[in-house]
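Continuing the batch. This is chain 6 of the set; chains 1 through 5 are on the previous pages. Same settings as before, nothing changed between runs. Recording input and output for traceability.
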Amino acid sequence: MAEPSITSADVTRWSEALAAIARTGLGFTESRYEQERFEEILKVAADMRVAAGSAFDPDQLIEEWMKTAGLGVAGYVTPKVAVGAVVGDDEGRILLVQRADSGVWLYPTGWADVGYSPAEVVVKEVHEETGIECEPIRLIAVLDGQRMGFTRIPLYSLVFHCRAVGGTLEAHPLECADVGWFAEDAMPTPLAGIERWGEQAFAAIRGEDVDVLFDAPRPDVWRS
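Output for chain 6:
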């Protein structure tokens, strides 16, 4: 049987996992011997990330990783949390933004801010990025950003179906190159992860009763 091919995305995921294990270990151990071992793991993780195509050198990666290191519970490394908004209008179209940094289209999304609930962040992000006022209806997806392929940063995205209730289209001058409403058969390109969330998004916009979409566990996850 042929050996499964290993992609740069696989190596990036393994690198981030090792780096997280190492930083968490550094946050919980007081043993100098163990600290040195975790530091070695961090160096291996940095070499792997460079081999996968990182623009940074290993020392820069280690420096960036260590900025999030802490002691005890504060040092337990977990994925960041983002929120996304599938906003529909009366014509059944979806609201999309074109990211200024990459040129890629996606539904409005942003980091989960401290002091806000996820639904509150959704309302804020949609208005800031697009000028549209929206009302969150329900959670329709919890997705792994790395598995979707639109980020190299470990993150979980909470995606809400929302209804547009007002406002005027206006792209954020720094974050968005463009913004617009799009029908299911007239989506722009390049579009991030559409094969993963597209069907779910438009089913929700049509008013269908959809279950929450999530990434099913993979068998033998570290070798698949």
